[in-house]
Design brief:
The chain is an alpha/beta fold. It has four domains: about 80 residues, Orthogonal Bundle (Helix Hairpins); about 160 residues, Heat Shock Protein 90 (2-Layer Sandwich); about 130 residues, Response regulator (Rossmann fold), CATH 3.40.50.2300; about 120 residues, Homeodomain-like (Arc Repressor Mutant, subunit A, Orthogonal Bundle). Helix content is about 50%, strand content about 10%. Strand 11, helix 11 and strand 12 form a beta-alpha-beta unit. The chain is elongated and about 95 Å long.
Length: about 525
């Protein structure tokens, strides 16, 4: 009964901290974004002010790390964390984390050393989880060291099935009889220690190691050293080389701001149940975009029915209809499927990102996030949509389906092309007739074509006529008058005028140019 009671207390404590961590992430976002903007946009001549802001930024980042650890540990404890094993350069990853934490070691004036084999080790691991393991173990070694920290990837050969890494530090020795106790959640060896902590780092690290089918233990092979030995299999039974997938979806290239100015601001729909984040994002985005707001997915769909939205920025966890359901609805509904979706969420695990991307999301940004990074992402996605629109406007029909759009949009484009070219010689082919042939209402067809190609249906019909005319002219089976009639023109002079406007030359010059 005592054991059962202790387990209940432990579960309640963990649940409390987990819920608290979820709640903390939203105000952290509202601290991080304005703080980053202040630091980036102002040059402070007062050194004390600059130091104060740097201190605030440093501790904000620390709070973010702590909340992430609590959420990760909760997932591991409840078996809700799934790892995705990818081919990873262990030398490079370990070196990256080691050098990222170098400033902590410098601050304590420690001898800080990393030893790596000459040959790089490649293993199948969850890169995100292993990074957390390395970070916790190296940070702990620095935190409790007096003078020295050593990290060593032990030598290996082609027959090994495990790789091993030692994390050594001097300082107060952990009693050997406590070697298992230190891996218990919330346990701290010295409660009066001036370096306070949560007691989550080591338990989380061991949980992540065990999910790799590996082992993390405290060993004593030298005097006056605490040595943690990490052992992880080089290969995993279930491995998936999705690195290229991650890079395609998570590698956010920062482009220069476009000098081009749109006559009308692009319309962005913000979907977020937290009113403060909604208000802040609205304030920051409204100078560049027309911003519409919704509190959940259901409200967002009502707005999408009424407004011509260019991009949706949505949270995942919301009442009534969450972000995943909203994204799935958008990407499977022919009326909305061309609209890009960005997830903005506190759910930061890799499997959550992949689930979001599988539902059709165009990008996935974690809370707390960089406002500048968000702005660049929005700009790049809208720029990419413009590239798609230009492609649809100017490409030949044979290449039209090569562009990267959703399956419903490809089907729509294919059907639209078929209908237009089957009726290309019909003089009366216009938006009303096209809507009937596509079995859509006129407003729905107009919005869809406008959203995909930035053209009105009548403009698209005229361009399609000219593209077909160019194709027929290059075949040299018909003269210019015959071709103009075949693509629905009754007056040849009108055909010649439109053709010259679109291709920059007359039909006869076009024939001559293609002959060359």
């Amino acid at each position: 009964m005592n054991e059962k009671k202790e387990q209940e207390i432990y579960n309640l404590k963990l649940e409390f901290f987990t819920n608290l961590a979820h709640e903390i992430r939203t105000p952290l976002t509202l601290i991080k974004m304005p703080l980053e903007k202040i630091i980036n946009n102002h040059k402070f001549t007062d050194r004390d002010t600059a130091k104060d802001l740097a201190l605030i930024e440093k501790n904000t980042a620390r709070l973010i790390r702590l909340t992430n650890q609590l959420l990760d540990f909760r997932k591991a404890e409840t078996n809700n964390m799934s790892l995705i094993f990818t081919k990873t350069d262990i030398n490079a990853l370990l070196s990256e984390v080691f050098h990222d934490l170098n400033y902590f070691a410098k601050d304590k004036q420690l001898h800080y050393d990393l030893s790596l084999p000459r040959i790089s080790l490649t293993a199948y691991v969850d890169e995100e989880a292993l990074r957390k393991i390395f970070t916790n173990l190296i940070h702990n070694a620095i935190k409790y060291a007096d003078q020295e920290v050593y990290v060593k990837l032990l030598p290996f050969n082609s027959d090994d099935i495990m790789f091993n890494i030692e994390f050594k530090n001097d300082g107060e020795l952990i009693p050997f009889d406590k070697r298992e106790k230190i891996f218990e959640p919330f346990y701290r060896l010295n409660e009066s220690d001036k370096d306070t902590g949560t007691g989550i780092g080591l338990p989380l690290s061991r949980s992540l190691v065990e999910l790799h089918q590996g082992n993390l233990s405290l060993v004593h092979l030298e005097e006056n050293r605490n040595i943690f030995l990490l052992s992880i299999p080089i290969f995993q039974e279930q491995s998936l080389d999705i690195k290229s997938f991650q890079e395609d979806n998570d590698d956010h290239v920062l482009h220069d701001k476009s000098d081009e100015q749109e006559e009308e601001k692009p319309v962005i729909l913000l979907v977020e149940d937290n009113k403060e984040i909604l208000a802040y994002l609205n304030k920051e985005l409204k100078t560049s975009y027309t911003v519409l707001r919704a509190g959940n997915g259901a409200e967002a769909l009502e707005i999408l029915d009424q407004e011509n939205v260019q991009l949706v920025l949505t949270d995942i966890m919301m009442p009534i209809m969450d972000g995943l359901a909203l994204c799935k609805r958008i990407k499977t509904d022919i009326l909305y499927s061309h609209i890009p979706v960005i997830f903005l969420t506190a759910k930061n695990a890799l499997d959550s990102k992949i689930q979001g991307l599988k539902n059709g999301a165009d990008a996935y940004i974690e809370k707390p996030f960089s406002l500048e990074f968000l702005m660049v992402q929005i700009r790049n996605i809208l720029k990419n949509r413009k590239i798609i629109k230009n492609y649809l406007t100017n490409s030949s029909n044979s290449n039209l389906m090569d562009i990267n759009v959703s399956a419903p949009d490809k089907d729509f484009i294919s059907q639209l092309n078929t209908v237009i070219y089957e009726n290309i010689s019909t003089i009366d082919l216009n938006v009303d007739e096209l809507a009937k042939l596509m079995h859509m209402s006129r407003p729905t067809l107009y919005r869809k074509i406008k959203g995909l190609s930035d053209l009105t249906p009548n403009e698209l019909i005229n361009i399609s006529r000219l593209k077909k005319a160019a194709e027929l002219l290059t075949q040299k089976e018909y003269n210019i008058t015959q071709v103009s009639t075949m693509v629905g023109y009754t007056v040849q002079s009108n055909f010649s005028r439109d053709f010259h406007k679109h291709y920059g030359m007359s039909p006869s010059s076009y024939i001559l140019e293609n002959s060359k």
